[in-house]
Design goal:
The chain has helices at about 1-20, 35-55, 85-90, 95-105; strands spanning about 25-30, 55-65, 75-85, 110-120. With about 120 residues, it is α+β, with helices and mostly antiparallel strands. Helix 2 (about 35-55) runs antiparallel to helix 4 (about 95-105).
Length: about 120
């Protein structure tokens, strides 16, 4: 039992330690009246493709609001992009793929909220 438990605990520890210090880039979107449902779907897919073109992205997760309290101020989409460190974000932001996505997004965006932080446990 110990032979199995010790490696499992070491693997879990490595996973938890890896998460601390990662750099998170949180982006929320409020779309304007020009953003049809089809256009929003197209933009969701385009954002989802960014990690394929930008190797600094370690993980991307996203979702749409399911607020129980009406405090989302009209923001409907949230994307959480994870990088190894702050330097990953610094490479991501000016990348051609990110800039091309922004060019597609901007005509349909009323407002964006961006919050970056280093993960802590």
């Amino acid at each position: 039992m110990r032979k199995i438990l010790v490696p499992a605990l070491l693997a879990l520890s490595a996973t938890l330690c890896h998460a601390a210090g990662e750099f998170r880039h949180v982006v929320m979107f409020k779309f304007n009246s020009e953003a049809t449902a089809d256009k929003v779907l197209e933009l969701e897919k385009a954002f989802h493709e960014l990690p394929k073109e930008i190797p600094e992205v370690q993980k991307l997760e996203w979702g749409t609001t399911e607020n129980v309290e009406p405090k989302n101020d009209g923001f409907t989409h949230c994307f959480l992009v994870t990088f190894k460190d702050r330097e990953g974000l610094k490479k991501y932001l000016p990348s051609a793929a990110h800039q091309a996505f922004l060019a597609k997004l901007k005509p349909y965006l009323e407002k964006a909220l961006v919050f970056d932080y280093t993960a802590k446990e």
